[in-house]
Amino acid sequence: MKKEYEILFTPAKIGNLEIMNRFIVPPMSFTDVIGWSNYGKSESKIEDFVLNKARDGVGCFIFGALTIFNKDDPDVWLYQRPELFSHVPALMEKLHSYGTKAIQQLGFSAGKALSLPPKLMENYGKDETVTRNADICMLSADAGLPNRWNPEWKTKQMSRERIHDIIHGMAEAAYLCKQSGIDGVEIHGSHEGYALDQFITPYTNHRTDEYGGSLENRLRFEIEIIKAIKERCGADYPVVVRYSIESKTRDFGHGIIPADHTSKEIGKTLAESQQAIRILTEAGADAFDCDNGTYDAWYYPHPPVYMPLNTNLKEATEVKPFTSKPIICSGRMQPDAAAEAISAGKLDFVGVGRQNLAESQYITKLREGREEDIRPCISCHLGCLPIGSWKGTPCSFGQLGNCALNPYAGHESKYDAMPKPEKSKNIAVIGAGVAGMEFALRATERGHKVTVFEKSHRTGGLFNEAAAFSYKEKDQDLLAYYARNVKKANIDIRFGVEIKDLSELDGYDDIVVATGSLAARKLKLPGSERFITASDFLHDGQPAGDKVVVIGGGITGCEIAYEMALKGKQVQIVEVMDDILIAPGTSAANTSFLRDAFVYYKVPVYTSAKVVSDDGKAVTIVKDDGTEAKLEADTVVQAVGFIQGLPFDIAGRDNVHVIGDASKISNLLNAVHNAYDLAMSM
């Protein structure tokens, strides 16, 4: 272990609860203690993940938000269903046997932040039950606040009676947690812009009763919840407050990206939050779990790759002097920054969520000084937060809680139960991209002999282009991780060898084709000879002129546009569809950042438009309504996808397996998971 990390492995307290080290797994959406969207049954993936983190040595696990009433029937309160907790004491006993403590996050209404699955969204206003339940879940401090995802929906003001019901419901739910062996609770809602936050924030609270007006009044709801829990559960029962320090919001649905130092904050400011932390401390809060943002600035509580490392650390350390209670900080937190802040007394615990998904032995490897063996989280959100959006509205809800890079996370018992292979195989892999390397590593771990044939002279394949952006240092770390681990595993990689016919590999038991896509798509238009493909642009590092047009508004095209904007280029995006960034799996946290960045950097986005020609100085686009425009361009980058296909005929070859983009053009998650599952099946 690095000497500077020693502080991370020292004990500390939340109230009277001693935690064996400074590592906390913060609440993630799929980890409520009674099972994500499956009341009454603890999903095996939750228990698998939690117990694996306990074995790894995490100090405290905060289970994700558990609503205190049934979201499908808000008249049914959690405290009326104690049988849902019947399995929890046994789980807590297992967790405690490793020395890990547990805290359950409790929440209620989302207010203007409510999002519904697509089918329910379609039925809002049409189906009486859907509409009624959504309206209750959208209750907020104020009436008439536009919904974050659909501005046509408006919040209704929460009545005093409902406020008092929620206070009671939170206290009773906390008591259920205590009776079940859970060590403490965390109040959800002041984080990310949920209903409780909307009470605290001045631009969403214009009430004239005792719950509006002054800061003390706007905090009253949360204060009464804290006191009610303490009264019901005892003064010593820990109550953590999830708190967003600065809203980072400039308008409804629009955040303030880190580069923007000119937009006016309309939500909570640092100065006001410093006073709020002081008041909540006096009210009885035992710790504060801090970040920034709201659903208007979703990329702070869920920072994508475009956000800086240690996203929320600065603000967390700036509220520390206003409380005697511990401060927890999450958001792309790195161990060196956390250790420095804790050593200086500016922070008490570090929240590590997605990195604990990406690396199953994160804490163990840090403790043993094996940092190079840690699979880095690249903040892609492909598996952990795959909530896509169309025109800013959620349009696809993937399964939360997976990791693009670590299929094992959340499925530990499934993979641990897989039998070892009866005999070692001699396996050839064609292609040393991410899919090929992932397969080679896992197959080698299972005892097989693997030889990799790579026609280029480096590992990584197309991911080298994905990692070429200036803000993707963790992508570059991932490439280095694979290269190191392939070398440590003594896997035979033969560079500069192109397999042209599978008969060259007839001596192998199995052949795995991981050659990626055949090629980048190219547009054939008058004047398109000067167009550069995204792959060539990123791979070769070709210089761009001052005026750049990017054809294609998918994730690759938008990331190129963002990179050019960072470099001060005049960049424009042309997309044939009616919106950008709509590929399945592309998280709304990522897309909301890019949309706000394009506004800040003044990047024009032309949707429902296609390029029809180029005269060497400008491209001509035609919109769906028939209007034309000329866009000046020194450089034209086409990011219009890739062509799937195989360079070989595999007909009749039962021992040939195709993985990654060679099988289907997709994304990193599918490539890694495809490779992992194949290796585990052999």
Describe the protein's topology:
Blueprint: E1 12-14, E2 17-19, E3 23-25, H1 44-56, E4 60-67, E5 69-70, E6 73-77, H2 88-97, E7 101-107, H3 118-123, H4 128-137, H5 160-179, E8 184-187, H6 195-200, H7 215-218, H8 220-233, E9 239-244, E10 249-251, E11 254-255, H9 270-283, E12 287-291, H10 313-319, E13 327-329, H11 335-343, E14 349-351, H12 354-358, H13 362-367, E15 387-390, E16 393-397, H14 412-416, E17 426-430, H15 434-445, E18 449-454, H16 463-466, H17 473-488, E19 492-495, E20 510-513, E21 519-520, E22 532-533, H18 534-540, E23 547-551, H19 555-566, E24 570-574, H20 588-600, E25 605-606, E26 609-614, E27 618-623, E28 628-632, E29 635-638, E30 642-643, E31 656-658, H21 668-681
Q: In brief, what are we looking at here?
A:
The chain is α/β, with parallel strands linked by helices.
Describe the structure.
- The chain has 682 residues and is of the alpha/beta class.
- The chain has 3 domains: 3-397, Aldolase class I (TIM Barrel, Alpha-Beta Barrel), CATH 3.20.20.70; 422-518 and 644-681, NAD(P)-binding Rossmann-like Domain (Rossmann fold), CATH 3.40.50.720; 521-642, FAD/NAD(P)-binding domain (3-Layer(bba) Sandwich), CATH 3.50.50.
- Helix content is 30%, strand content 19%.
- It has 21 helices and 31 strands.
- α1 links the parallel β3 (23-25) and β4 (60-67).
- The radius of gyration is 26 Å and the shape is globular.
